[in-house]
Amino acid sequence: MIELKDVSVTYPGGVNALTDVNLKINDGEFAFIVGCSGAGKSTMIKLLLNEVAATSGEVHVNGFNLKKLKRSKVPKLRRTIGVVFQDFRLIPTMTVYDNIAFVLRVIDAPLKYIRSRVPYVISLVGLSHKAKKYPDELSGGEQQRVALARALVNDPDLIIADEPTGNIDPALSFEIVELFKGINACGTTVLMVTHEHNLVKHFGGRIININGGTIAFDEIVGGSNEVKQF
Length: 230
Ligand code: ADP
Fold this sequence. Notes:
Helix content is 32%, strand content 27%. The protein is an alpha/beta fold and 230 residues long. Residues 11, 13, 15, 17, 35, 37-43 line the site of adenosine-5'-diphosphate.
């Protein structure tokens, strides 16, 4: 669960990036975060990842109170969150399999576990046939699927996706969001930052709009893909 109570973030130099934000996202939810450039979306994400600290207020993420979080416990928090970036951030010299296995190798996961878990998450994103390929042999959409598999490999409670469709052919953006929806349907909370109105309109759901560092609206809207019942 994510909970922000009266959270403000002021950067050195005096920019108020977030002002008195109150927000609760329950386990298992899917929410879009939308807003213009400079609205405070990245600051919100950095706050949840403990990359920036709240100037005032309280931030709770997956049972951690970030104000009280010791530096030594930060990796424990991070392991409960999978992050997907706009630019994929795959390692070009590693295969799909190794890009994902790497996450488990650095935390000294048992080899037996790696050998079962990695193929499983690759199959979840529909890329079993590309496990031995390198990132530059894949399309943008496929690379983002690998990035999602990598984010899932630690079995996180929460996936944060920062403009995951920003570098993808618009026609494939819907498929990528569908994939996140499928992951969410299995219980993982998903928070997706996007500025693509057509995606938000299509899928609907919880939309959190940030404007000038405050939440302008936070509503559940119907998507245009829903079958209307009469
Ligand atoms: P968004 O992700 O919605 O584009 P940001 O969270 O990046 O917005 O930025 C919110 C505000 O904080 C903007 O005015 C931006 O210029 C400012 N800002 C972001 N990062 C920093 C920083 N490291 N130092 C100072 N100001 C920053």
